[in-house]
Request: fold
Amino acid sequence: MSTHRHAVPPRLLPAAVVYGPRTADRSLLARFAQELRERGFRVGGLVQAASLDGGGAKIGIDAIEVDTGRRIPISRPTASQRRAGECGLDTAALADASGALRRAVAERMDLVVVEKFGDQESSGGGFADELLAAMAEGLPTIASVPAAALDDWNLFSGGLGELLPYDEAALWRWWGPHRLYEDLVRGVGEAPARRVIAGPVWTIVEGPEGCGAVPTPGQEGNAGTSPSNAAGLTGRPLSELARMLLSWDPFEAAVGLAAVNAHYNRYDLEESTESDLGGFEACGELLVEAAWRLADKEETLIEARRLVDHGLPTLLAAKGLGSVALAGPGTPLTPRLFTYGIAVLSGLVIEDPQGAAVLAACGEEGNIGRHARPLVLAVLRSPEDQR
Reply:
């Protein structure tokens, strides 16, 4: 639908998630992969889980295909092997499991997960070939690496990858804020747009369960979606319109964001906290434009229009560890954004879509808030967790 180039996230370096012998919970990669799959991303590869007998005792290790859930018993040590400290690795089962990695590379999945880089891979066996293939194809690749194998991993990866601590926040920082656009878009359903208006002041997309209102960007020098051709978008699936958010053209991106909000900013949405942004410093225009200045601020409010001009990821990356509030009528009110470093979302839920549509169609400078209610979502976690 879009006639303009789409923003493409920067390439991710392969990452090693390093854990030590005292890391009790080894489910981090599995949980991260599952979260991305639930958000609509295509994730392939392998994670591992203990296999238990009927009494709850560990009898071995299974490799689990991320995309299918199939469990492959790669380790079933005998009693004598346990006494000798051997893991009882089944190399035939390991070869079978490697098919999930080859499939992930062949299908160019959004993320390739490998659990784990161990003794076999250090010596060039195991999943080494599949790991190298994923890296060579430039696919986002992440592997769990025991601390004892870190030198081998650095040699294997040529020192070109990233080393991450074994925690969820580190994984999301590696995944990066540039992918929040695709994340938002993939969550939007197929319901048809009941009305699309791109007026001089407001762009409106109305869906069956919500309505999105976004300030229309200035029209100078743009030949994209405009008041004269937006009506032809009515009846299109919201998911199709939402993909316009990826466009570099500001008109198309505004329609895309309005479609995103028609899905997330539902009429029945309730806020999670008091509507008080007093703890955040309101950015001046210069501060918002100059991303590097955010690095020195502990708490910052960013305008939602930065989604339309694709400046938000750069601002979030520059922000560091401080708290960020995303505010404005175009703010998508969805917890999906919390994992990208945003702590507070302050936006609008349109309650009178007809009134908002009339305001947009007439091109008036009127307050869209007359047809909406303000709503705030906040991530409920401690400052330590936000790091």
Observations:
- The chain has 15 helices and 14 strands.
